[in-house]
């Protein structure tokens, strides 16, 4: 695609701050959702701080050539829960988060060393376009339920149907306003509007949600109360960093043995790290196609892995959450055409600074999920379309190409996730593994479409 700002371009300072804020808004909901889901007193501000630090670490390792933000990884939710389950005291649980992140990071470091020694040609063999393209598409499609659920303010029941509540109507209106404003700004906007469609859309959705909330408060109609302004009553001014809790107090382990506890953490984190490695490659392949530059060759897969791994360690040290490259960030780059790495760096600095400014973090936290749902429909959609574009030049008339793509799409959309105790193979990981196996069994590289004159 045509980029407005390339990797090394530097927007003007005022524009840079606005672009960084847009990236921050794109990744915020998911980044602070992980500590909220885990609970146990985990700090959302600290997670935001850790994401900023982890991203800066990643940029340093990749020599400022890869424009993507690192945020809290959902893949490690089960692993983090295991850390708290094995540590009876708070200090032990938080220590487990740090130990687990170290294990996960070391997996990345080990793979990076192997890649450095043997190169990346095996990646092209295992994951050609017929494998990586539909996998990237699945990353976007697998998140579609989250986007729609947020948009209508509902969750799914056991049958997969959304359970609508009283807020659904107002939420859907806010989501649609946000979505349409983002689309119109991106397509018909002039100059700056094309570069900040998410900020414009979120502001429009937030205004509509606020109007609904004010009317609801005035008429005592809870169905219209979408924005939770009560969050301002208990603002957290200073982040509760993970290492502060981990290295204070007494340690009390469920089994009474530190060795067995560390073993439990290792089993919970290490296998997941190998799964996230596959998603790491998919994200960077996708980003490479967007910016027109192969990141697996320059700065190199070994550097992106080291950046991701060490960045995860740093992020967990401060915020408890291992980090990973964010599809929302990649989608933001794709839609706006802004691949400036300095924008990502500024976003990381902004995240660190914002984590200490409670009113700002709280204001961002009050953005209704329905508004973010409207934004995410476009973000996740662009990820899916980016993956399909990779398959566009592949000859799907050849069954040897058709079958790997078919297997990945069906396994991924069908949600073929597998659980092995505390270890979960996500639908994306299962789809990718099946696609790789199918491609290897067929034993051929994907053939390109024949150009017609």
From TrEMBL:
Keywords, in A-Z order: Membrane, Transmembrane, Transmembrane helix, Transport
One function term, GO molecular function aspect: xanthine transmembrane transporter activity
Source domain of life: Bacteria
GO terms under cellular component: plasma membrane
Organism the protein comes from: Candidatus Faeciplasma pullistercoris
Protein name: Uracil-xanthine permease
Membrane topology: Multi-pass membrane protein
Pfam families, alphabetized: Xan_ur_permease
Keyword Cytoplasm among record annotations: no
Keyword Lipid biosynthesis tagged: no
Localization, UniProt: Membrane
Family classification: Belongs to the nucleobase:cation symporter-2 (NCS2) (TC 2.A.40) family.
């Amino acid at each position: 695609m045509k980029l407005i700002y390339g990797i090394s371009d530097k927007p003007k300072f005022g524009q840079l701050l606005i672009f960084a804020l847009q990236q921050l808004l794109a990744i915020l909901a998911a980044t602070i959702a992980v500590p909220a889901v885990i609970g146990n007193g985990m700090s959302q501000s600290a997670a935001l701080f850790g994401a900023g630090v982890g991203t800066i670490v990643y940029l340093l390792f990749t020599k400022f050539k890869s424009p993507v933000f690192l945020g809290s990884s959902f893949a490690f939710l089960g692993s983090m829960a295991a850390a708290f389950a094995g540590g009876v005291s708070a200090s032990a649980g938080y220590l487990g988060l740090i130990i687990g992140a170290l294990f996960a990071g070391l997996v990345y470091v080990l793979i990076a060393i192997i890649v450095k020694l043997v190169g990346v040609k095996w990646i092209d063999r295992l994951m050609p376009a017929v494998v990586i393209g539909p996998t990237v598409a699945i990353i976007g499609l697998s998140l579609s339920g989250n986007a729609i659920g947020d948009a209508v303010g509902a969750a799914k029941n056991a049958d997969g149907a959304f359970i609508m509540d009283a807020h659904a109507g107002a939420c859907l209106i806010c989501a649609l306003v946000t979505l349409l404003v983002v689309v119109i700004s991106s397509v018909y906007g002039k100059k700056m509007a094309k570069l900040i469609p998410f900020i414009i859309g979120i502001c429009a959705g937030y205004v509509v949600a606020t109007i609904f909330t004010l009317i609801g408060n005035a008429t005592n109609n809870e169905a219209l109360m979408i924005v939770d302004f009560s969050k301002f009553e208990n603002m957290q001014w200073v982040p509760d960093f993970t290492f502060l809790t981990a290295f204070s107090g007494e340690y009390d382990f469920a089994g009474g043995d530190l060795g067995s506890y560390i073993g439990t953490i290792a089993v919970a984190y290490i296998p997941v790290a190998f799964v996230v490695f596959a998603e790491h490659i998919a994200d960077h392949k996708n980003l490479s196609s967007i910016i027109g530059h192969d990141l697996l060759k320059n700065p190199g897969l070994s550097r992106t892995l080291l950046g991701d791994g060490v960045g995860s360690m740093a992020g967990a040290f401060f915020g408890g959450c291992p980090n990973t490259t964010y599809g929302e960030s990649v989608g933001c780059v794709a839609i706006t055409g802004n691949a400036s790495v300095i924008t990502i760096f500024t976003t990381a600095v902004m995240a660190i600074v914002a984590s200490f400014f409670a009113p700002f973090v709280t204001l961002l936290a009050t953005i209704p999920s329905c508004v973010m749902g409207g934004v995410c429909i476009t973000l996740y959609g662009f990820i899916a379309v980016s993956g399909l574009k990779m398959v566009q030049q592949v000859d799907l008339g050849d069954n040897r190409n058709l079958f790997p793509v078919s297997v990945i799409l069906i396994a991924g959309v069908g949600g073929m996730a597998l659980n092995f105790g505390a270890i979960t193979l996500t639908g994306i990981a299962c789809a990718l593994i099946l696609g790789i196996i199918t491609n290897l069994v067929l034993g051929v590289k994907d053939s390109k479409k024949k150009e017609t004159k």
